[in-house]
Design goal:
The protein is mainly α. It is built from twelve helices and no strands.
Length: about 200
């Protein structure tokens, strides 16, 4: 499974949405976010000298990390919109507002969808836990952590009109992995990603 296949999958899913939903949820900006997260997650893993196969997984997981939002946009647009508004008004992570409204977050729905599609388990895990990587059983830095970091950096620096509130990066968690000192370099990598 290659990054190009991830792009084809996301483009296919995004293209099935009705035009009003594309505008309401700023789907073009969401696609751009997913691309930046894939690029940055790969760069983060590369900087930490993870194996080449993990770099590919990071790219694919980053590109697909918000696939569950497509389920929400297409099947539960009003509930999802209310979750976004609730998130903004309460400064509460949007994935938590989704869970309250629908008993599942976009991350969990995305992981389930990718599992149904038969994608590799490291991609499914990264998508499912990209907001809460500490719930995984790993005790060393992983692709899931890279997608978590890349997504939050991009949300912080490039938020769009259909975003909910995003929590800050959990520095204590990064300290437990021994990588908190890398934040400045990851922010520079993000800036370079924007220039591409």
């Amino acid at each position: 499974f290659k990054a190009s296949e991830a792009l084809i999958l996301t483009n296919g899913v995004f293209s099935e949405l009705p035009e009003p939903s594309i505008r309401r949820f700023c789907v073009d900006q969401l696609q751009e976010h997913c691309m930046r997260v894939g690029t940055l997650a790969r760069a983060i893993c590369n900087g930490l000298h993870l194996p080449e196969d993990q770099l590919d997984v990071a790219s694919m997981a980053g590109i697909l990390h918000d696939a569950g939002k497509m389920i929400l946009i297409s099947s539960f647009p009003d509930e999802y919109w209310r979750s976004i508004l609730e998130s903004r008004s309460r400064y509460f992570p949007v994935f938590g507002a989704e869970r309250q409204a629908l008993q599942a977050s976009h991350a969990e729905l995305g992981g389930y969808l990718l599992d149904l599609w038969g994608l590799p388990s490291p991609i499914i895990e990264a998508v499912t836990y990209h907001h809460e990587p500490w719930l995984c059983s790993q005790s060393v830095f992983s692709v899931t952590d890279a997608v978590y970091i890349a997504s939050l950096i991009d949300h912080e620096r490039q938020s769009n009109l259909a975003d909910g509130w995003s929590e800050p990066i959990n520095i204590e968690y990064l300290q437990s992995l021994g990588v908190a000192d890398q934040m400045d370099s990851w922010l520079r990598l993000h800036k370079a990603t924007l220039a591409e």
